[in-house]
Amino acid sequence: MSIINISDFTLSQRCLLLQKMWKEAVPFPFPPSNKSAPKLAWTAGEIMIRRGMHIDYFFGRCIKTNFSGSEISTHLYERDVYGVSVQGLADEVRSAGSWEFLQKMNDFVRDVHFVY
């Protein structure tokens, strides 16, 4: 079981981690999940994190994580999304400076919108 300490993460950083995990997860073969997540999805994700909800599946992709506490358990995500290290994604979020953080958010939104 993998436990990652995210007690130092702001709400924005938790949302960015959700987005990175969503991007790495393979979409289900159903047509709606092959599309990019609508902009409203990230608002929904933020609300779910604020309310302390466990996010099982998020817009057609496996997440299986609760981002609201000081630690997250990643074993279910890493079991279902083979080859992805949530610790590595969390370290990317943690090490990003304020400008880098905003740039990565912009890059992510562009990539999700145009690539998927």
Explain this structure:
The strands form two sheets. This protein has a two-stranded antiparallel sheet with strand order 1-4. By secondary structure, it is α+β, with helices and mostly antiparallel strands. The mean pLDDT is 80. Helix content is 55%, strand content 13%.
Order of helices and strands: EHHHEEEHHH
Shape: globular
Name the strands of the widest sheet in spatial order: 1-4
Low-confidence stretches: none
Derived from helix and strand composition plus strand pairing, the structural class reads: alpha+beta
Cα radius of gyration in angstroms: 13 Å
**Number of H- or I-type helical stretches:** 6
What is the beta-strand fraction?
A: 5-15%
Largest beta-sheet characterization = 2 strands, antiparallel
What's the total count of β strands? 4
Count structural domains: 1
Q: Kindly report the average pLDDT value.
A: 80
**Terminal residue distance:** 31 Å
Give the helix proportion (percent range). Answer: 55-70%
